[in-house]
Inverse folding.
Protein backbone atom coordinates (compact mmCIF):
# COMPACT_ATOMS: atom_id res chain seq x y z
CA UNK A 1 0.00 0.00 0.00
CA UNK A 2 2.81 2.42 0.88
CA UNK A 3 4.49 1.72 -2.45
CA UNK A 4 1.27 2.57 -4.32
CA UNK A 5 0.91 5.85 -2.44
CA UNK A 6 4.57 6.75 -3.04
CA UNK A 7 4.06 5.95 -6.74
CA UNK A 8 1.05 8.28 -6.79
CA UNK A 9 3.10 11.10 -5.20
CA UNK A 10 5.84 10.41 -7.73
CA UNK A 11 3.35 10.70 -10.60
CA UNK A 12 1.97 13.93 -9.12
CA UNK A 13 5.48 15.40 -9.09
CA UNK A 14 5.48 15.82 -5.32
CA UNK A 15 8.48 13.55 -4.82
CA UNK A 16 11.33 12.27 -6.94
CA UNK A 17 13.64 9.33 -6.60
CA UNK A 18 17.01 10.02 -5.04
CA UNK A 19 19.75 7.49 -4.62
CA UNK A 20 21.73 8.19 -1.51
CA UNK A 21 24.11 6.68 0.98
CA UNK A 22 23.44 6.17 4.63
CA UNK A 23 25.91 8.95 5.47
CA UNK A 24 23.54 11.50 3.91
CA UNK A 25 20.58 10.09 5.79
CA UNK A 26 22.52 10.13 9.04
CA UNK A 27 23.55 13.73 8.31
CA UNK A 28 19.92 14.85 8.34
CA UNK A 29 19.25 12.89 11.51
CA UNK A 30 22.29 14.36 13.28
CA UNK A 31 21.15 17.85 12.38
CA UNK A 32 17.67 17.02 13.68
CA UNK A 33 19.26 16.12 17.01
CA UNK A 34 21.22 19.38 17.06
CA UNK A 35 18.08 21.39 16.32
CA UNK A 36 16.11 19.56 19.00
CA UNK A 37 18.88 20.06 21.56
CA UNK A 38 19.10 23.76 20.74
CA UNK A 39 15.30 24.04 20.90
CA UNK A 40 15.34 22.70 24.46
CA UNK A 41 18.08 25.13 25.48
CA UNK A 42 16.42 28.05 23.71
CA UNK A 43 13.06 27.52 25.41
CA UNK A 44 14.36 29.26 28.54
CA UNK A 45 14.91 32.52 26.65
CA UNK A 46 12.69 32.31 23.54
CA UNK A 47 9.60 30.17 23.12
CA UNK A 48 9.31 31.33 19.50
CA UNK A 49 12.90 30.30 18.73
CA UNK A 50 12.43 26.97 20.49
CA UNK A 51 9.22 26.30 18.57
CA UNK A 52 10.85 26.99 15.21
CA UNK A 53 13.88 24.85 16.06
CA UNK A 54 11.64 21.98 17.16
CA UNK A 55 9.82 22.21 13.83
CA UNK A 56 13.12 22.27 11.93
CA UNK A 57 14.24 19.17 13.84
CA UNK A 58 11.11 17.32 12.74
CA UNK A 59 11.51 18.50 9.15
CA UNK A 60 15.12 17.37 8.93
CA UNK A 61 14.34 14.00 10.48
CA UNK A 62 11.45 13.66 8.03
CA UNK A 63 13.73 14.41 5.10
CA UNK A 64 16.12 11.76 6.41
CA UNK A 65 13.22 9.31 6.52
CA UNK A 66 12.31 10.14 2.92
CA UNK A 67 15.90 9.54 1.85
CA UNK A 68 15.82 6.19 3.62
CA UNK A 69 13.00 5.25 1.25
CA UNK A 70 14.90 6.69 -1.72
CA UNK A 71 12.90 9.90 -2.24
CA UNK A 72 13.14 13.66 -1.78
CA UNK A 73 10.36 16.24 -2.04
CA UNK A 74 10.04 17.80 -5.50
CA UNK A 75 7.29 20.37 -5.49
CA UNK A 76 6.49 23.84 -4.25
CA UNK A 77 5.16 22.50 -0.96
CA UNK A 78 8.17 20.55 0.23
CA UNK A 79 7.40 20.84 3.94
CA UNK A 80 3.87 19.53 3.42
CA UNK A 81 5.18 16.71 1.22
CA UNK A 82 7.70 15.66 3.87
CA UNK A 83 4.89 15.49 6.42
CA UNK A 84 2.64 13.54 4.06
CA UNK A 85 5.37 10.99 3.34
CA UNK A 86 6.20 10.67 7.05
CA UNK A 87 2.55 9.81 7.60
CA UNK A 88 2.75 7.11 4.93
CA UNK A 89 5.96 5.55 6.19
CA UNK A 90 5.51 5.70 9.96
CA UNK A 91 3.09 3.33 11.66
CA UNK A 92 -0.42 4.15 12.80
CA UNK A 93 1.13 4.74 16.25
CA UNK A 94 2.51 8.05 14.97
CA UNK A 95 -0.67 9.28 13.30
CA UNK A 96 -1.28 11.92 15.99
CA UNK A 97 2.37 13.03 16.00
CA UNK A 98 2.28 13.45 12.21
CA UNK A 99 -0.96 15.46 12.48
CA UNK A 100 0.67 17.72 15.08
CA UNK A 101 3.72 18.04 12.82
CA UNK A 102 1.37 19.39 10.14
CA UNK A 103 -0.24 21.76 12.66
CA UNK A 104 3.25 23.00 13.55
CA UNK A 105 3.91 23.57 9.83
CA UNK A 106 0.91 25.88 9.65
CA UNK A 107 1.91 27.70 12.83
CA UNK A 108 5.50 28.00 11.57
CA UNK A 109 4.17 29.60 8.37
CA UNK A 110 2.12 32.08 10.40
CA UNK A 111 5.12 32.90 12.60
CA UNK A 112 7.31 33.36 9.52
CA UNK A 113 4.99 35.27 7.18
CA UNK A 114 2.53 37.12 9.42
CA UNK A 115 2.78 39.61 12.26
CA UNK A 116 1.21 39.48 15.70
CA UNK A 117 0.93 35.70 15.95
CA UNK A 118 0.61 34.50 19.52
CA UNK A 119 2.52 31.52 20.83
CA UNK A 120 2.10 30.18 24.35
CA UNK A 121 4.54 28.32 26.56
CA UNK A 122 2.22 25.35 26.22
CA UNK A 123 2.44 25.49 22.39
CA UNK A 124 6.22 25.35 22.61
CA UNK A 125 6.29 22.63 25.27
CA UNK A 126 3.95 20.55 23.10
CA UNK A 127 6.17 21.19 20.06
CA UNK A 128 9.23 19.95 21.93
CA UNK A 129 7.41 16.81 23.07
CA UNK A 130 6.03 16.09 19.61
CA UNK A 131 9.43 16.62 18.00
CA UNK A 132 10.98 14.17 20.44
CA UNK A 133 8.26 11.59 19.77
CA UNK A 134 8.35 11.87 15.99
CA UNK A 135 12.15 11.80 15.80
CA UNK A 136 12.17 8.78 18.10
CA UNK A 137 9.83 6.99 15.70
CA UNK A 138 11.97 7.91 12.73
CA UNK A 139 15.09 6.66 14.52
CA UNK A 140 13.36 3.32 15.20
CA UNK A 141 12.42 3.04 11.53
CA UNK A 142 16.00 3.80 10.46
CA UNK A 143 17.38 1.32 13.00
CA UNK A 144 15.07 -1.38 11.63
CA UNK A 145 16.63 -0.87 8.20
CA UNK A 146 20.21 -0.32 9.40
CA UNK A 147 21.03 -2.11 12.68
CA UNK A 148 24.35 -0.24 12.85
CA UNK A 149 22.52 3.09 13.25
CA UNK A 150 23.63 4.46 16.64
CA UNK A 151 22.18 7.96 17.12
CA UNK A 152 20.13 8.38 20.27
CA UNK A 153 17.86 11.11 21.54
CA UNK A 154 19.19 12.96 24.57
Amino acid sequence: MIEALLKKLLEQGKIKKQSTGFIQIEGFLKEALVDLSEAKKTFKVSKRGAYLLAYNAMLKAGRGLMLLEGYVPDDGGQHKTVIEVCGLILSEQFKIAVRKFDNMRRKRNELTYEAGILLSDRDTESALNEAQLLISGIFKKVKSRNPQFELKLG
